[in-house]
Amino acid sequence: xxxxxxxxxxxxxxxxxxxxxxxxxxxxxxxxxxxxxxxxxxxxxxxxxxxxxxxxxxxxxxxxxxxxxxxxxxxxxxxxxxxxxxxxxxxxxxxxxxxxxxxxxxxxxxxxxxxxxxxxxxxxxxxxxxxxxxxxxxxxxxxxxxxxxxxxxxxxxxxxxxxxxxxxxxxxxxxxxxxxxxxxxxxxxxxxxxxxxxxxxxxxxxxxxxxxxxxxxxxxxxxxxxxxxxxxxxxxxxxxxxxxxxxxxxxxxxxxxxxxxxxxxxxxxxxxxxxxxxx
Length: 279
Prior knowledge:
By secondary structure, the protein is α/β, with parallel strands linked by helices. Helices cover 35% and strands 18% of the residues. It has helices spanning 2-18, 64-72, 109-122, 137-148, 170-175, 189-206, 221-238, 268-272; strands at residues 24-29, 35-41, 49-53, 76-80, 130-135, 154-158, 163-164, 167-168, 180-185, 211-216. Strand 5 (130-135), helix 4 (137-148) and strand 6 form a beta-alpha-beta unit. The radius of gyration is 24 Å and the shape is globular.
């Protein structure tokens, strides 16, 4: 009976392990005394580490699926419980945080990011090899934190909004001039329009080739990431700075074997392709 009991306990515990981000359990402290819990996986072939910032009421293990994709593609990651969430509750829970004020604890989550970046720096990861990825609330925190860390390799915002508990993204994206990935689904018109606005702000700040906007049919936050945009986000992480799209270059004029220019008249077929509505 003891043998069967042990087997039952092993199978019962297995889903808990499968449902968690894998890696080294780590802890570090913010400048204002919060103990931040995280899971760290060193970088693989890319040499880059992704800092994962979860949505409100969630935790680091919401990235269990995405973190596996990161590891498969040569990325390291640091998934953390933001203050007031998961195991980072030594000074209270997020439900008790003030919902307004530029100095509330939601805004102070950037200090959690600061502590995470410092942790990675001590592990030998330079700023340019760190990318912030945030979902929901974590997207707003990631955007604001990116404005304070202009040297990071990029920031990805999954379902960001212009204002979450007074964590503002427009001022942050006006400051940050690096590579930006934004994703939002079209079924929520308000969120989609706000994300589109943030895309425009980021484009004006960062410039050509540095902003990618991904859309999907539905879902938000972590669900949007897992169901729809993971392939596009992985592709962006691999090549965050896209080359500028150049206009088509007309073919060089034909030349005869002796080097004399021979003009080529448009064919009757080319004439027929001119839209009549433009004439």
